[in-house]
Amino acid sequence: MSGKNKQIMHMLEIEISKKETEIEKRDTEIEKREVIIERLKQKIYDIEHSITWKLLQKYERILNKYFPKSTYIRTLHDNFIKKNRKQIQHTDKKTTKHKTGSKKNPQSKEIDLSNFQLNFPEQKHPLVSIIVITFNNYAYTVACLDSILKYTMLPYELIIVDNHSTDKTIELLKQLTNVTVIRNNSNVGVGAGYNMGGEKAHGKYVLFLNNDTIVTEYWLDTLVDTLKHNKSCGATGSKLLNLDGTLQAAGAIIRENGVCKNYGFNDDPNKDIYNYEREVDYCPAACLLVRKELFLNIGGFDDRYFPGYYEDVDLCLKIKEKNLTTIYQPRSEVYHHEHGSTNREELKRMIRTNRIKFLSKWGEHIH
Fold first, then answer.
1. CA neighbours within 13 Å on the CB side: how many for 204?
2. How many CB atoms lie within 10 A of CB 192?
3. Contact predicate 197/211, CB 8 Å
4. 231 phi/psi in degrees, rounded to 5
5. In the chain, how long is the greatest CA-to-CA distance?
6. What is the DSSP letter of 191?
7. Would you put residue 301 in left (φ > 0), alpha (ψ -120 to 50) or beta?
8. Per-domain residue ranges for the chain?
9. Residue among 25, 100, 106, 155 nearest 332 (CA)
10. DSSP symbols for 195-264
11. Would you tell me how many other CB atoms lie within 10 Å of the CB of residue 92?
12. Domain 106-365's class?
């Protein structure tokens, strides 16, 4: 490529980057307005289904029946109400600390693995196969596995797919008992790695979990209950929290231009709007539960999105093609160090590249 062509390509890349920044700003503004709309809808719903509202509606019907407007008694009544009505000012309550609390960054300190060991329960008939992909960042994996062992009560098996880690992850995996470990000779990516785990799974359900997550009490029970009691549901995902306790994702949204946004990002996770079960465009595969039979029938994750990003969006759309839904389950809470294993520039490049691949496959379906 000539120097002039390189200069033109560089200028085009700068222009594309500017346009993407503008699109991100517009998407953020749209998302803020959607949140406001959802809040108003929730408030209207709460009001209309409250006992006070129902009593007022009944009172008004009686009033209109026996004392129609323009009658003398009705006029006295209305004037009295106007004169004595109190003006109520609604103020937002600013919370300094979320009920959910926060978690320390697992990378903040070195971990000595010389005497470290995690003994997972042996299960001959696991209900759930938990599949975790590792690629370096062993400290994240330690925190993740420790939380699984502490908070998972249902019968499960643990499958770890290592994408050719070169740090202490190799040492860590040797310290685990009753765990299926698949070691790859190269980084095959997220989608292909999860597929390898899915092929080895014995559970009725497969749970895809990032290694930079920390699960909490009843995290898995609530997800399994969601699929068990909702036959039209094909997949369900957790409420994802940032390490500081703020909300990371209450499900996610797919825009017409292929841009995907975490719903409620950085907001207060205790708000009512984020705490009811509902259908969503997709749930991030940082923590996603799917029926194994369905997962295998639709071909698993599409490995075209190597090394990662958009494979979970794609999977949920394939599930939707089967007339099944993806449900956001707020009772399952999982902390996630988003993009903990990817640097910012590499992240932008992967998202940009895979969005193009995603639109070429699904563009006509999301308009």
1. 9
2. 23
3. no
4. -65, -20
5. 91
6. H
7. beta
8. 3-78, 106-365
9. 100
10. HHHHHH--SSEEEEEETTEEE-TTHHHHHHHHHHT-TTEEEEEEEEE-TTSSEEESSEEE-TTS-EEETT
11. 6
12. alpha beta
Distinct helix (H) and strand (E) counts, the chain: 10, 14
Pairing label, strands 213-215, 325-336 = antiparallel
The tokens for 357 are 């691949």
User: Per the confidence metrics, is the pTM higher than 0.70?
Assistant: yes
Helix (H) or strand (E) holding 289: strand 287-291
- Kindly give the pairing relationship between strand 205-210 and strand 287-291: antiparallel
Residue pair 332/207 in contact by the 8 Å Cβ criterion: no
**How many residues in total does the chain contain?**
367
- Give how far Cα 17 sits from Cα of 14, 202, 354, Å: 5, 45, 15
Burial class (CB in 10 A: 0-12, 13-18, 19+), 206: buried
SS3 325: strand
Q: What is the pLDDT along the chain (367 residues), one digit of tens a residue?
A: 666 677 777 777 777 777 777 776 776 677 667 656 765 666 676 676 666 766 777 777 887 877 787 787 777 777 777 766 544 333 333 333 445 667 767 665 677 887 888 999 999 999 999 999 999 999 999 999 999 999 999 999 999 999 999 999 999 999 999 999 999 999 999 999 999 999 999 999 999 999 999 999 999 999 999 999 999 999 999 999 999 999 999 999 999 899 999 999 999 999 999 999 999 999 999 999 999 999 999 999 999 999 989 999 999 999 999 999 999 999 999 999 976 556 678 888 899 999 999 999 998 888 6
- Written in H, E and C, the secondary structure of 86-113 is CCCCCCCCCCCCCCCCCCCCHHHCCCCC
Q: Cα–Cα distance between 298 and 292 in angstroms, integer?
A: 10
359: which 2 tokens?
């639109």
Q: SS3 for 313?
A: helix
Tokens of 250: 């209450």
